[in-house]
Amino acid sequence: MTKLGRSMSALLLTIVGISAFQQCPVWREIAPCACRRSQAKLSSITCDKMGSYGQVVNLLGGHFGPTDRVSLKLSSSNLQDLEYRAFKELNVSIENLKLNHDHIGEINEQAFEGLNKVNYLSLADTTLERVPEKLWKKMPAIKTLDLGRTKITEITLSNFKDLPNLECLVVPGNQISRLDKGSIPARVQRLHLGRNKLRHLNHTLVGLKDLGWLFVNTNELEDLEDQLPSEAPDLKLIHASQNRIKRLPQQLKNYPALDSLFFQHNALISLEGALTKSKELVRLVLEYNNINMITKDDFQELEMLESLLLGHNHITTLNNSLIGLRNLNFLNMTFNRLTEFSFQDVVGLQELRSMDLSFNQITNIIGPAANLVEWDIKLTELKLDHNLLETLNGALSGLPELLRLNLSFNKLRRISPDDFIGLDQLRLLDISNNLLTTLEETSRTFLPRLSELRASHNNLTVLEKDFHGLPVLCHADLSSNQIVALGRDLVTKTRCKIEHGVHEGTWDTLKIYLQDNPILCDAALPEIMSAMEINHTRIYGVSHCPPLSEQPVTSKPNGFLGYIPETDAQLETQDHDFDAKTLTNVLDSTNQLQPKLHPESLGVANVEFHSSQKYSIEHLEGITPEMRIHHDQPIALTLQPLNIANSTSDSNDLRNSTNFDPITQGQQITKLASEIEELRSRIDQLSTQNELLLNKTILEQKELLQRSPKEGDSRKT
To answer: Are strands 570-573 and 43-48 parallel, antiparallel or unpaired?
Structure first.
């Protein structure tokens, strides 16, 4: 059917009162425009990046009838020809009109002729510079008007006088510095004046009794006293953040329906009882102010309050101000000046689930375990990081629903068994960046559901049975400590169990992160790895190890994997001992052709001082002088030990019990390590020589094989 035919059919059916267009046309017929029909029988048409308004008319003409209700959006288009054209050319009933990011040029009010049914108009992100008040006579039914980001500089008394039904006015992101008194229609229910340059509201809002929400954020306002509606029974939200307001307006007491209040990033010093009548308040945001004190009366009647954000202020004490907040769910007190916290301040707050007390100066927490149980505190998340805590004194015991506990960046030196009693639901414990030297006491505390332990950047040295109270631990971050040994029974009572996701309830591998710990430079690392993997545990990490001659050689008791320094200098020898001279004699056999030797596969004897005070030899698996273990892969080394037998008589001097001076002992060990390094260098030289000899021998054999067939052929000839 031709365009003329479609138009004639539409006209005929319109005359008899029948609409020919009940559905959107096929998308190919109006592309690149798109059409979607809603359940309210409203056709939403969107056309982006049009070259002209004439192109829109050509695409949509004949596809819709005058009785079709349409929501039309023309965005990012060049509509300069609209100056001498009109929307009535589309022959539709437009109810919503959106002209966003368009280049319109000079607005001709005649182009908007016949749009008397438009109730929503958006000219956002289109350069206007002033309110196009001449258009309102063509569209008197507008209820919602969006003029955001149109470079408007002022709102005058006449701007909206021809819009008696206006209920929602949105003019954010402009450069408005002038607001005439009485310029906002009295029936406005939603007003957005945010992100402008207003220094004063000029009493413009005082008579807006129907106001439901108000945005005046990001302006230059200093005082709202007597600037808000004298009464507004339906006012629910006020957003006044990022101004210079020094005190809350007392008119807040006149808004019984107020449920959300945002005054962050201002200059408030105190609350002065302005919220005492806000019984329906649910969200209160007062962050980034200069509040230095809150009193018991400030929140006395806020029984419906769920979120209270007071972070980044100068508050030094809570003053029992939270007692009446029966429905409080989230409390943020980060970046204040609290020096002490008592759980008595949150007694009776059974809905409180998350509390952030980080970045304060707290040195003491008060709350005996027995009382906590009686208080029935149901916190699931508690942040106490970046404070000055040196001890917990059992104050956190008895929080049966706590899931996440952050104690990082404090000054904790010890964790006692009583500190975590009753934390049966705890999943995450962060005690990183403290001064802890041991986690031994945690083995006496049972945390049946702890899956992640963060204890990096402490002073831990030895872990023996520290994980015995952590039966389902899956991640243990112990990086950047001084760990030199792991107990053989460390993980024997621990097995990772997945609690979330599609694999919930299945067993997994415990991952221990030992980044930057001395144990990763331990020559017994393969033994450590094997022992851990038997118990479904893998070690991860990377460490920059010094040369072997600079690495400490200390004792290794049978109950540990790794080296533990001993203070007793008395040493006794065992039957299988040797010295550097013995190793030299073994390797100094140059009369025979030897296979190629690599330092990586050469086991070197290691002197170890056991707690039994006996001097013994245990062969190490080969470790290069600067061993690196990549962080993204589990450590797994396949090493071949070199067994050295038949020690020479030079080692007999060590078989007698002898007492050593610690200094002499250290010098001997250092000397032996240096000799071993020299031997390794010599081994490299021998390996090179042997390879040359081996290659020469192979070549000679090949030449002999090549000569033999030729000699046989010559004999036959």
So the answer is: unpaired
Ramachandran bin of 391, using left for φ above 0, alpha for ψ from -120 to 50, beta for the remaining angles? beta
pLDDT digits (tens, 9 = 90+) for 243-298: 999 999 999 999 999 999 999 999 999 999 999 999 999 999 999 999 999 998 99
Beta-sheet pairing, 43-48 with 34-37: antiparallel
Query: What Cα–Cα distance (Å) separates residue 672 from each residue in 341, 559, 659?
Result: 57, 27, 18
Q: Is 80 exceeded by the pLDDT of residue 662? A: no
Helix axes 662-716, 580-587, angle to 10 degrees: 0
Percent of the chain exceeding pLDDT 70 equals 76
Return d(Cα 672, Cα 579) in angstroms, integer: 8
Q: Does residue 237 have a pLDDT over 60?
A: yes
**The residue to which tokens 């000569």 are assigned:** 707
pLDDT of 500 above 90: no
**How many Cα atoms within 13 Å fall on the side-chain side of residue 313?**
28
* Residue 415 backbone dihedrals phi, psi, to 5 degrees: -115, 120
> Token digits for 190?
């939603």
Name the residue with tokens 């027995």: 370
Tokens linked to 447: 């945390």
184 neighbors 191 (Cβ within 8 angstroms): yes
Q: How far is it, in rounded angstroms, from Cα 146 to Cα 551? A: 72
Burial class of 125 by CB neighbour count within 10 A (0 to 12, 13 to 18, 19+)? middle
Q: Give residue 635's identity as a one-letter amino acid code.
A: I
Give tens-digit pLDDT for 528-544. Answer: 788 888 888 999 988 77
Residues 278 and 260 sit within 8 Å (Cβ to Cβ) = no
Give the span between the Cα atoms of 367 and 605, in whole angstroms.
Answer: 56
Tokens 């013994």 sit on residue: 616
DSSP codes of every residue in 633-667: S------------S--GGGGGGSS-EE--HHHHHH
H/E run at residue 705:
helix 662-716
Rounded Cα distance, 389 and 38, in Å: 60
If pLDDT is split at 50, 70 and 90, which confidence band does 643 have? Answer: very low
pLDDT tens digit sequence for 310-343? 999 999 999 999 988 999 999 999 999 999 999 9
Could you write out the three-class secondary structure of 560-592? EEECECCCCCEEEECCCCCCHHHHHHHHCCCCC
Any bridge partners for residue 96, and if so which?
Answer: 71, 120
What mean pLDDT, rounded, does the chain reach?
A: 81
Whose CA is closest to 450, among 514, 504, 404, 401? 404
Verdict on whether the full-model pTM lies above 0.70: yes
